Amino acid sequence: MSASEVQNLLEEFWALNDLHELAFIYNEIRTFLSSFLKLFHCLKNNKMLSEKHISNVLRYVGNDLPQLTDRIQCLSNDVINLEDKKRNLMNELILWNAQLSDLGNAIDMKNQQLKRMTNRCPNGTLDKLNGCKP
Q: Of 48-52, 80-84, 104-108, 121-125, where does mean pLDDT reach its minimum?
């Protein structure tokens, strides 16, 4: 039996069982049936095969989907921008930490120089630099 004969028998079966709309729907979605089945399985796996859940899905698709799609795009752009700002701030923080470390090292060196100079003076003060040992 050929595929077209099977198709005709299936459509006759649907017609006999008063499922004319099912035959029409099948003919409409036949080219993207795999996507339709993915949607069905997604709803089924998430326990959303009920009148309430399907009505919500239809409401979102019919009314809110364009706005939700735009919102998702805006939020995605915001995330990209925030990640870029975060990367820039992290680089700036690394630079500041390096500068702070350099300043700390410079302070330590100056403190060591001051300590050596203080130790060279006989009375422990720097009031009279002429009295310090060379």
A: 121-125
Residue 72 lies in a domain: no
Residue 114 lies in a domain: no
Average pLDDT of the segment spanning 57-82:
89
Residues composing the chain = 134
Percent of all residues in the chain with a pLDDT value above 70, rounded to a whole number: 90
Distance between CA atoms of residues 104 and 68, nearest Å:
52
Q: In this structure, are residues 117 and 126 in contact, taking their beta carbons and an 8 Å threshold?
A: yes
Query: Looking at the 3D structure of the chain, how many domains does it have?
Result: 1
* Residue 7 in tokens: 């198709």
Tell me whether residue 50 is in a domain.
Answer: no
Whole domain around residue 9: which residue ranges?
1-32
Task: Say how far apart CA 95 and CA 101 lie, in whole Å.
Answer: 10
Q: What is the C-alpha end-to-end distance of the chain, expressed in Å?
A: 113
